[in-house]
Design a protein that fits this description.
- The protein is α+β, with helices and mostly antiparallel strands and about 120 residues long.
- It has one domain.
- The chain is built from four helices and three strands, in the order αβααββα.
- The chain has helices spanning about 5-10, 45-50, 55-70, 100-105, and strands spanning about 35-40, 80, 85-90.
- It has a three-stranded antiparallel beta sheet, covered by helices on one side.
- A hairpin with a 4-residue loop joins strand 2 (about 80) and strand 3 (about 85-90).
- The chain is globular.
- The protein starts with 6 loop residues before the first helix and ends in an 11-residue tail after the last helix.
């Protein structure tokens, strides 16, 4: 999808699933505008932590990524997926924060990934 002039309304206007069965239908999905950025987090050594029965700490760290992004965006809504040991989210250009800000707001535990 091309970049949009009104990124603020893009997320607000995505159709809402009315039935869980819609999750498998291609028509239920909308492509992000080209100028949005996707952020991905992965909790370091989560597999080992889960083996050591520290699954709650892993889940809290994954959820903290979403909470940190929400706080950084002053509570604005944005699409995200919680994966247990990390999270994926998308933001429009106006909400893109530089990696140092993200590292500082997460207490230095985040490492920026590489652009693909």
């Amino acid at each position: 999808m091309p970049a949009t002039n009104d990124n603020n309304s893009f997320y607000a206007n995505i159709p809402i699933f009315t039935s869980f069965g819609n999750v498998v239908e291609q028509a239920s999905y909308v492509r992000l505008p080209d100028d949005w950025t996707i952020g991905v987090s992965d909790i370091v050594q989560s597999t080992q932590a889960i083996r050591e029965s520290r699954y709650r700490a892993v889940n809290m760290a994954g959820a903290a990524v979403i909470a940190a992004a929400k706080n950084a965006l002053d509570g604005r809504d944005f699409p995200y997926v919680f994966g247990g040991d990390g999270a994926t989210f998308a933001v429009p250009p106006r909400d893109l924060l530089p990696p140092p800000y993200l590292r500082e707001s997460a207490g230095g535990v985040l490492r920026p990934g590489r652009e693909m």
